[in-house]
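Build the 3D complex.
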Amino acid sequence: MEAWQQLRRNFRELWQSFRGNRMGVIGLGLVISALIVAILAPWLTPYSPQQVMRDENGRGLTFAPPAVHPPLGTDDGGHDVWAQLVFGARISLTVGFLAGFIAMFVGSFLGILAGYFGGWLDNLLMRITDVLLVIPDLPLMLVLVATIRQMQLKISPITVLILVIGLLYWTSTARLVRSQVLSIKERQFVARARAIGAGHAHIIRKHILPQVMPLIVANTVLILSTAILIESGLAFLGLGDPTKPSWGTMLNFAFDRNAISNGAWWFYLPPGLAIVWVSLGCVLLGNVLEEMLNPRLSGHHLEGEAHIIKPGEQQ
Amino acid sequence: MGSGNYLLRKFAFALLTIFVVVIINFVLFRILPGDPVRAVIGRNVKISAEVQQSLREQFGLDKPVFPDQFLMTIRQWASGNLGVSWSLRRPVAEILISKLWNTLLLIGLGQILSIFFGVLLGLLAGWKRKTALDAGALTFSLIAWATPTFWLGIILLAAGSTWLGLPTGGILSPQNVGKPLHTVLPDLAVHLILPTLTLTILYLGEYMLIMRSSIVETLGEDYILTAKAKGLNQWQILWRHALKNAMLPIVTIIALNLGFTVSGAIYIETVFSYDGLGKLFQTALTKQDYPLLQGAFLLLAVSVILANMLADILYTILDPRVKAS
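Done.
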């Protein structure tokens, strides 16, 4: 059987059992609804995030509560919070998804290389992941981003964030894929393919990749939530692009401009809720996919009622 | 013999990782644009050309970057000389040490509380798998995981200061700064409530999840089935057979999580204006104070690496199977 067809069938089966899982469906719903908001942003609000709201007398509406300026009030500069939120979705999701996909590509590529070819290459790649795993990631990223910005290259701050997050978060994917590839390459169909003269590229493409693909998908969804959280954190610490505010940048503004002491909850609650919305969606979805694909997490001996077999009873 | 080898390998790996961190630190500092003399003494200090030249020689900048400057930098860092902060005009090492204790206090409190509650809840959740308790614990830890640290801090700060009258930040009230420690303990405690609570909620979910999956895996082992077949009751199995083995991953996770802990400290100290290493890191970042930033990074990275090594060693003592492999 063609392995990719098998994969397609596996995905169909996966979808069948996935639909019955409430957590997974909720997760998928959260992620998709956020994507829709990001795509439809210009149609969801009459204002732009930069536009200053004014009252009848032409004065700027600063920290106007939702009751005065629905639906989510204004910030310290009189900008509409809802407009910032829906346009911020574009920035946050773009950075999160692109960084997550970079991490997935790098991680899967290196994981397959290390697992399939083994030897010194495997050793080298695994030592690199070991080292990266031990170095505390946030301080490293802060130092990297700060230095890259100081170098005044012609790269937008958002691109810097995408690259730094993507190129630092591939280690867990690489390890996972590698261990999976290690077990797959010992299977008979790989040995047979090699025996009839299949090359490495052919074996990896036709036999290894379809087998590790479901695992990569599950892992990518989990990486997405990390990427979105990290982006919000870096932006909160002031490393976002102030001209293209993401949810993290909004929180940075809210915190720096005293939204808390002004009681402007409409400024600091929505962006955080939005981040939780998306990252929770990815975690729920990713966990369900992982549980469906990892047989180690199925059940244990203290579960269910104890069943004592009485003498003479047939088992 | 075998275990000696293992320890040696762990030690060598820690050294290698520290070396990588040192290289990263060195390279990043050197690729910054502008004159390195400026980078060391600060941008806005006026100096004459002769002084600049003598400084170049003093810092070895007239020698090649590699190996002379590199070795010189390593020698300086190893002797505890991390340069002078641009914004605070004091030696970086001195500043770092003055903030270290505050951070250790905060992280320590948060870790102890979250490990205690995390292990307890994780044990119950894993044992009573697929019950309301388990579902509740899982939901909590998932939401805690998906919540940005700093935002949780912001919410607790807003709620705590508005409704409970807790301080909005800092370690001590202004009138208590500089007084002997034992006289200001109640004030210190009040200031610690919100940051510690944030840290605890954050780490709690992580420990609970790990403990839960570890106990689920342990309860799936054959010796648990044996114990059950012997007629031991659930508490005996849980306490005498499962807990000890299931606790093993927690030891490693505490160390592996240290990087995560450090991130948490940076966010939380920023939100609560808590005067520790994390706040210092954020200040260095916003003021573009590179010597301070690099020094703080070096200190944080090396501490995390060493803690990881210690955890590995501790793990071999607790789990003899590791030595054999």
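Chain A touches chain B through 54 residues (CB under 8 Å).
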